[in-house]
Design brief:
With 129 residues, the chain is an alpha+beta fold. It is built from 3 helices and 5 strands; from the N terminus they run H-E-E-H-E-E-E-H.
């Protein structure tokens, strides 16, 4: 059984729990899309950008002695993009409007990332091409 529908269910539940959340995506740490519920955003491009941002965030936390990467938040003039570690092999990326309650987003997304991480980590690793 593929984990994609279960991960997508988590994304839908997160959207239902956080007002002004526009969508989310789960990708592998190396930038391969696992599941998404994004509208008007290209998931493959977002996955690649997230992988690059996470790489920098990991180096930043390690270089400053803050430990391993857990999450990052970017605020733009039209809203927020947040990324959360989801187990050892994935990342949850969320996109929200400027009105989003960032505290609620963090609370609910951290919980979702934990559940998603368990799903992804329990699934067999994909075979190398």
């Amino acid at each position: 059984m593929t984990i994609q529908p279960r991960v997508r269910d988590e994304l839908h539940a997160l959207r239902d729990q956080v007002r002004h959340l526009r969508g989310g995506m789960v990708a592998s740490a190396d930038g391969m899309v696992i599941a998404h519920d994004l509208r008007n955003i290209e998931p493959d491009a977002l996955a690649a950008l997230t992988a690059a941002a996470i790489g920098v965030a990991k180096r930043l936390t390690e270089a400053t002695g803050q430990g391993g990467f857990e999450e990052t938040l970017t605020r733009g003039t039209h809203g927020y993009v947040a990324a959360y570690a989801a187990g050892a092999r994935a990342v949850l990326t969320t996109v929200g409007g400027p009105e989003i309650n960032v505290g609620r987003l963090h609370l609910r997304a951290r919980q979702a990332a934990e559940r998603i991480g368990a799903l992804v980590d329990e699934a067999p690793a994909p075979e190398p091409s």
